Amino acid sequence: MYFINQTNPGKFARSVSIIGVGCTPFMETLKNPETEGLTEGDLFGYAALSAMEDAGITPKDVEFYYHGCASPLNGSNYLTPNMQVAEWAGMRGRASVHHSEACCTGYLAIDEACKDVASGKYNVVLTAAVEFGDALAIQGKPAHIRESFSFEAFQRSTEWLTDNAYSRHLLCNIGHDYGAMWYQEQNGLDTKQIDDALCMLAVNARRNAVGNPLAIDNTEETTYDYAAKKAGYDDVLEYMESPNNPKVGGIMRISGLEHKCDGAAAVIVAATDWAIEHNLPHTPIEILGIGNCALEANNPYLEIYGTMEASRQAYQVSGVKPEEIDLMYVNDFIISSQLNAAEICGYIPKGEAWKYVMEGRTNVDGDKPINPNGGRTAFGHAHAASGLADFYDAVKQMRGEAPKPIKKVPKTVLLRGFGGGQNLCNIIIRTKED
Questions:
Q1: How far apart are CA 400 and CA 408, in angstroms?
Q2: Which H or E run contains 431?
Q3: How many distinct structural domains can be found in the chain?
Q4: Which positions ≥6 away from 90 have C-beta within 8 Å?
């Protein structure tokens, strides 16, 4: 077993629940005259105020707030971005903290807010994240004037994820192939089987996103089925395994990488007793357990081992068993994460996830749904905001309000966050029983 320092977190001192969620559409702001010129304040405020409205509270009820952004200097040119958005969310005078944990920011945003409420310091905390993942700030220009964030520039920015003095750039989390390689080797898949599974994951993600008004790829015209027919292919997999979908490594294809975009999302957490006492419009969603792990990028297969440890902690502290999970969300900016995380967390039996994918069982209408919102390749990836967008969709599913509902309203949901060659976070939430 790969050595990791293990932690055994204790239970919260008091119950904490999600009482409100908000999310902007995930979008490419520069490509639409209606959205070009939006600022971080616009997006953060929209998500935060939407979450307050959803919770049935006002800004006066919020006692503290968190601001998340994966790459603040790159995206905003703000040194203290939490203070630049306060007025937009009615937070004038409220204390706040900015944090940045790359693509795991949104999950750790929940963790931080929960600790504040569980300790008794505050009853109501807002945690929100905003990212211009497709539109960079321009040094010396006002915040509403941006330039396109090219994929090449994005790839260069991933150098910031590692210690360039000492870290080995070998099998770290930013390599496209390592997760797929691990899964293939562990389960004895041949080249065609792993290629089929990865391509079908991307096909299914686009299908899941259709009809979701917040997803960036939400129309039939954005599906790979549509692209295949337009290109003259009868079989979507044949299209996906053609030069129309080139490989970006030895295994992964371009369809398995994130669709980077702009967006914001927010979650409001409160003491469960406070929520019940104030007779809010929605049944609280209790946060039962959170597990964390962090590994530097010089650790081979860090996502695999970090997920094992974060999953172990979340199950241990919550007392929930894997068979109780009704729905799973996976931060899949590299889409092979779905296969590994689903099996490591016990949501799908070992060696079976690729088969479930091929059979459609992980789709929004399947019996083991994963990322019914489309995940990072189809809902879009606004880096820091994406984790909170997962919570938005999960809560909507649990209330029976999702635009693309799964077959059965879920009671217990597992969300697995990962980001930046460092942080793994597993969070289990459950609808509070009457």
A1: 9
A2: strand 423-431
A3: 2
A4: 49, 52, 58, 59, 60, 62
| Rounded Cα gap, residues 426 and 415, in angstroms | 6
Quick one: which H or E segment has residue 50?
A: helix 40-55
What pTM, to 2 d.p., does this model score? Answer: 0.96
Residues written for the chain: 434
The residue type found at 179 is G
The tens digit of pLDDT for each residue in 326-348 reads 999 999 999 999 999 999 999 99
In this prediction, residue 171 has a pLDDT band, given cuts at 50, 70 and 90, of very low
Same domain, yes or no: 57 and 135: yes
Q: Are residues 328 and 272 in the same domain?
A: no
In a domain, 183, yes or no: no
Segments forming the whole domain that contains residue 344: 287-431
- Are residues 203 and 240 in contact, defined by beta-carbon separation less than 8 angstroms? yes
Q: What is the DSSP letter of 155?
A: H
Residue 303 is assigned to a structural domain of this protein:
yes
Q: What percent of the chain has pLDDT over 70?
A: 97
Q: How far is CA 424 from CA 1, 63, 106, 173, 251, in A?
A: 18, 28, 11, 11, 24
pLDDT reading at 83 higher than 50: yes
Digit-coded pLDDT (tens) for 355-410: 999 999 999 999 999 999 999 999 999 999 999 999 999 999 999 999 999 999 99
